[in-house]
Every structure is written in structure tokens, then in C-alpha cells.
Amino acid sequence: MRRAVFLDRDGVLNRVRLESGTPRPPAGVAELELLPGVPEALSLLAEHELVLLVATNQPDVARGRLRRDAVEDIHTWLKAALPLHDVLACYHDDADGCDCRKPLPGLLLRAAAAYGIDLPRSFLVGDRWKDVAAGQAAGCTTLLLDLPYSQRGRCRPDYQVADLLHAARIIVSLLRAPEAS
């Protein structure tokens, strides 16, 4: 069984724009801007043979605000530019009642089955409480980026971090700990 790091996309890998305090994703590749330290963080994690998987909610497709092909173009660009194994997306809205929309762990569970992931020995890095809840439901160690919109009061992550590079350094230190073997 392999270890993985599940990564939320918007706010973790790429910059979001805030509208009334709510983070909004880029509308396409032209608006996509990686956050500082992301390539370095992912390289560090990849050096430790972790499976790097993006697990992202993209409800703006169901809401008619974004085209699915534009979102998939972003995912194609991310997979070409970064050492990611895959990008898994939920295109549903809350009312759809699917099991793949975080805070439910469906995306993580499917990825674990497809990639042979040992979930209790894996990690999730997110920027919102729903990410943490999904990671915890799947049994992962969770790291929450401490951002104004994270709603950290709604969850109890294992670690709060400033950014993905900080998260990567914590994950590597945990991998090196004697009990992590």
C-alpha cells in the first residue's frame, strides 16, 4: 500500500479571488496562477515517493458559472506543470447528494482503491473545513491552510499551516519520525 497526499486545488495550489469573503476559482487556464512555493512543495513531497492527488469540489459547473471543459483544461495544465498523479473532481452541487462532494470522502476512497493508497498513513491538505472533514472521514492526517475563509472553527485539523510549503515540510518531518515507518 502506498502513501498519498490529497490536495485541494483552489486556495492550496492556485490563487483564488474573493467575492464577499468567498473564494472563487479561476475561470480558465488564462486566470490560473500558482501560489508561491507550490512547485517546491510538490517536488519535496514527490522526492519522498508520495502519490500526489488533487481532490477538488467544482460546484460552479453544476451552477452554470463555469464550463466543465474549462475546468478540465485547468486540470490538464496542472498535471503537465506539476508532479501530480491525478486530479479528481466533483462537479456536483450540495443538492445533488453525491458521495464525492467534500466533506464526504468519496473522492478519497475512490482514489485509494484506484491507486492502492493506505489512507491512515496518508495526508490531506486543504484550505476549508470541508477538506479537513473529508480527510478525517477517510482516516488521513489533515493539514489546514490558515486563511480568512477557512472556517477553522468548524473543524479540528491535525495541523494548521501557513501554506503548502509549510504543510510539505511537516509531512516530510512526520515521514521521518521513527513511528512513521
In brief:
By secondary structure, this protein is an alpha/beta fold.
Structure description:
This protein has one domain (4-180): 3-Layer(aba) Sandwich (Rossmann fold). The protein is built from five helices and eight strands, in the order βββαβαβαβαββα. It has helices spanning 38-47, 68-81, 106-115, 129-138, 164-176, and strands at residues 4-7, 17-19, 22-24, 51-57, 86-90, 123-126, 141-145, 159-161. α2 links the parallel β4 and β5 (86-90). α1 (38-47) packs parallel to α5. The radius of gyration is 15 Å and the shape is globular. The chain starts with a strand and ends in a 5-residue tail after the last helix. The relative contact order is 0.19.
Chart the SSEs and their pairings.
Blueprint: E1 4-7, E2 17-19, E3 22-24, H1 38-47, E4 51-57, H2 68-81, E5 86-90, H3 106-115, E6 123-126, H4 129-138, E7 141-145, E8 159-161, H5 164-176
Parallel strand pairs: 1-4, 1-6, 4-5, 6-7, 7-8
Antiparallel strand pairs: 2-3
Helix pairs in contact: 1-5
- CATH class placement: Alpha Beta
Main sheet specs: 6 strands, parallel
Order of helices and strands: EEEHEHEHEHEEH
> Order of strands in the sheet with the most strands?
5-4-1-6-7-8
Number of strands: 8
Overall shape: it is: globular
Number of domains: 1
Separate helix tally: 5
CATH topology: Rossmann fold
N- to C-terminal distance: 13 Å
Overall residue-averaged pLDDT value: 96
The CATH architecture can be given as 3-Layer(aba) Sandwich
- Output the CATH homologous superfamily: HAD superfamily/HAD-like
